Amino acid sequence: MPYPLCRHIKTNGLQCEAPSLTGESFCYFHTRLHQRHAAFRHTDRTRGYLVPGQHIELAPIEDRDSVQLALSLVINALAAGQLETRRATALLYGLQLASANSGPRRFDPLPSKLVRRAESTPEGLDLAEPGATLNLPSDRQPGPDPDPNFEGDDSEQETITQRTWPAP
């Protein structure tokens, strides 16, 4: 049975491959992540009130790639004089903690798995195009506590439907 995938696009360009919540665009984790970070996102209306040297917009820190992107933003803002040294120091320390907690870096994704088209929400979030689904065998429905030690044969493994993208 096919289940729609979460439409969140990770920093490395890959779409989250978790099933989305029923009737929603995101999986449980990304629904909560976006809800909790909504207060920190700036809109076109509020950007004019940001104080130079005190504010910098960072994406949610969810993996090593997002830590690397945030490091680049903080270092460039500091170098350009757009961020106070004291604030940059605190941010860099936080990013050091995030990096230590995020585990080993994974290998670069295959180009065929990268999101090629996105659409933006009014809040400024980029979403993968709808339509990718997760196919589960009919006897293996997602439940609250999936067995992490599942060792079925290859025919029972979850598969993601192939996406076809038009040439850019």
Q: What is this structure's SSE topology?
A:
Layout (H helix, E strand, L loop, with lengths): L1 E3 L23 H10 L26 H16 L5 H17 L16 E3 L5 E3 L4 E3 L23 E2 L8
Antiparallel strand pairs: 1-4, 2-3, 4-5
Helix pairs in contact: 2-3
DSSP summary, beta strand count: 5
Determine the strand fraction and express it as a percent band: 5-15%
* Helical coverage, percent range: 25-40%
Number of domains: 1
Count of runs of 4 or more consecutive helical residues:
3
Run of helices and strands = EHHHEEEE
Instruction: Summarize model confidence as the mean pLDDT.
Output: 75
Structural category is alpha+beta
- Can you summarize the main beta sheet? 3 strands, antiparallel
Radius of gyration from the CA trace?
19 Å
What strand order characterises the main sheet? 1-4-5
Shape: globular
Oligomer: single chain
Overview of this structure, please?
It is a single chain. This protein has 168 residues and is of the alpha+beta class. The chain has one domain (2-160). 26% of the residues lie in helices and 8% in strands. It is built from three helices and five strands, in the order βαααββββ. The chain has a three-stranded antiparallel beta sheet with strand order 1-4-5, with no helix packed on it. A two-stranded antiparallel sheet has the order 2-3. β2 (118-120) and β3 form a beta hairpin. α2 packs antiparallel against α3. The longest helix is centred in the middle third of the chain and has 17 residues, at 85-101. The radius of gyration is 19 Å and the shape is globular. The protein starts with a strand and ends in an 8-residue tail after the last strand. Residues 144-148, 152-159 and 164-168 have low confidence and may be disordered.
